[in-house]
Amino acid sequence: MELHEGSLFWPGTVKDDRPFGEKEPDGRVYGAAVIGGGMSGAISAAVLSGEGLDVALIDGRAIGAGSTSANTGLLQYSNDIMLHELADQIGWEKAVRFYRGCAEAMDGLGQLAEKMDLDSSYISRSSLYYASREDDREKVRCEYEALRKNGFRADYWDEPEIGHRFPFQKPCAIVTHGDAEVNPLAYCRGAARLAERRGADIFEETKVAGLARVEGLIQIRTGRGTILAERVVLATGYSHTLLADHSVKNLNRTFAIATEPVNDLSFWHDHMMIWETKRPYLYARTTADNRIIIGGLDQETVSMPQSIERIREKGIRLESALAGLFPDLDVDVSHIWTAVFGESDDNLPMIGRHPEEKDVYYLLGLGGNGTVYSMMGAGVIADLMRGKESLLSDIVDPAGRARFWRMADREE
């Protein structure tokens, strides 16, 4: 599956041309092998190697070259499903516990960024989540009260308050604090570099052909040879998921543009990240070099547009949406792209043990908050590997949420 198309912004910003260790598989037995070198896999490798495990990180592409390179880099503890909506689905206790897990993951992402040698432009930001229409006012107010009641950092802005700070007016908004913007490709590669510094072996351009049990170990067959591990983490994102039917029930396509640097962004209050209640929603942010990134116009299809002209049409619509928010803004678009993203039916990530295979774990950060779920998942899996049940396991466990099968037993 092609995960993105068009002119990606982030690859031209990352100053990390040095290849990862070009080690060949040599029969070494790893404490954990992480399959998937996107955000989920790189963060997991950094966390597990920090726990003292011998780690192998394996990907069929270059590290971060899949969906991560098309990510727009908005990091928030709030989710596509609001807290009060999630409570209707799984109950208040679990919903609040999950949201707190997201807030803790945000803290963890910031701490991990500080340990990296590669600058990921990780900057703490607040987010403006506005009601797209008058009918959403009650929903936004209800969500604000749910967040405040349960100790989350949030403010409520009415229409005059929004208009005082931005050149647009909306019925109302929630402002959440403790969020962040990031260069996702730099963060992913920085996490992999950190894992490498902690002793992990990185196998880029190494396609996995299959898994099998061999004398109590897990054998990972690749085009470059065989890798053996005591445990395996499957962090394959929106690509094919090993040992399961495709756990991502809803594959969609999103579109984004990046502008040339803007001389003066003083009209953009506190460089807040912006999103809205409408579905599919628009999302927007600024960058460290004063560009604007805006995305949305999601489609329920994974097929690539027939031509670059179709992508440009979406880019024009996004540019128009940006002008609707900031009518006096005059920008030139530098990059336009489209990418696949996936969601689960219940709007939750799939993190935890394979229901039938010992020492096989899934870290699938599905949805619009995948980087936060990646950090959350790395912690959950680290706990499980230590024999400790995570406080989030009962919420994000993949058991019962997809069809799984066992790997072959081999006598070798």
UniProtKB/TrEMBL annotation:
Species of origin: Edaphobacillus lindanitolerans
Domain FAD dependent oxidoreductase: start-end pairs: 33-384
Signal sequence bounds: none
InterPro entries, per the entry: FAD-dep_OxRdtase, FAD/NAD-bd_sf
Protein known as: Glycine/D-amino acid oxidase
GO cellular component: a single term: cytoplasm
Pfam families: DAO
PANTHER family named among the record's database cross-references: PUTATIBE OXIDOREDUCTASE, SARCOSINE DEHYDROGENASE-RELATED
